[in-house]
Amino acid sequence: MEAGDAGNGSAAAAQIKGSGDDASCKPLPPCCVKAKAGVPEAEAKCHDTVVSGWFTEPRSRFGKTSKVQYYNNPMWPGEAHSLKVEKILYQGKSPYQEILVFESSTYGNVLVLDGIVQLTDKDECAYQEMVTHLPLCSIPSPKNVLVVGGGDGGVLREIARHDSVETIDICEIDQLVIDVCKEFFPNLSMGFKDPRVRLHVGDAVDFLRDSPEGKYDAIIVDSSDPIGPAQALVEKPFIQTIARALKAGGVLCNLAESMWLHTHLIQDMLSICRQTFKGGVHYAWTSVPTYPSGVIGFLLCAKEGPPVNFLTPVNPIEKIQGATKAGKELRFYNSEIHRAAFVLPTFVRRELESYDTSSTSTEKENPKESVSKSQKIKILPNNSILTAS
């Protein structure tokens, strides 16, 4: 999930501490500065790119404590989306993270990891369906698929719609996330019941390093935010390891943060992925109300080989036998929204186009050549990402 299906992801460019100025803190990138509406709430523990949520019991005008309890899910320091809590269903801690499940009044059950909302019954479809079908509907007849993270089971549920798939490997580091979701999110954890699923509990970096070369048609990274224990999952060595495990023409779908808040992270991830995946790299996005800023992005990457056109589904979900039969109806994804997901707002196109990829890679790898022409990302009208001298 956006802030963590069980702990794997990338290092953030900024760090925020408390509510005061700290000379030891790294400065916020411009995209974070423009989004920062105020200092973090005193009760909230701050992360590099997100702020943990907290419970409040608001007081009435007469100074009496209200019985109504809210969970404040920060969109960014200074703003939060408050969810009315009906009942706390579970609180616990694994070796990797704190886990909270509560019943909300409008979004159903809510999963929170380390104080960050991961999913809710109401809007999980917008994430689970898009992160799965954007890659799988872009290639013909995927057979072997790997999920990194995804302990709630939602991505497995969606992969199971594809009758061409023969094996579904999932590598999840946190067994407790799996167990908790099986109890409180049965509509997601049903994905584990598919006989094609093979669960591997452990570190995804080690798992992929030991995987045979060219094994998978698609890899879906359903991890946490690019901070803390998830740091390795968007760095170049891991991206290269993923590429090694993919077949020629295989595809990766990785989380790529919010275009409203984290364009510096998107730029860095684009740079890394473009160096590794020569079959094409595209940015897509979807709307998830309970995620910071209400949107989340994806990077769709293709390994060199048979051409992949992410912009138009060659394996449309509507034509897959049984994929949308009664009881398995899709709630969010369809072929039209697949195409629309790659249409970028003007400000995003502008910020990604202006990013000089050579400043982060060429200078380090070829210092003598770095004084030559710089290369910049160019996004064409069809949203293909090219290199312009």
From TrEMBL:
PROSITE patterns: PABS_1 (PS01330), PABS_2 (PS51006)
Region (Disordered): 355-389
Alphabetized GO MF terms: spermidine synthase activity
Keyword Phosphoprotein: no
Example GO biological process: spermidine biosynthetic process
CDD domains: AdoMet_MTases
Keywords for the protein's UniProt record, in alphabetical order: Polyamine biosynthesis, Transferase
GO cellular component term of the entry, any: cytosol
UniProt cross-references to InterPro entries, sorted A to Z: PABS, PABS_CS, SAM-dependent_MTases_sf, Spermi_synthase, Spermi_synthase_euk, Spermidine_synt_N, Spermidine_synt_N_sf
Active site per database record: D222
Domain PABS: start-end pairs: 52-303
Pfam name, any one: Spermine_synth
Residue ranges with Basic and acidic residues bias: 362-371
Family: Belongs to the spermidine/spermine synthase family.
Entry-linked HAMAP family: Spermidine_synth
Protein name, as recorded: PABS domain-containing protein
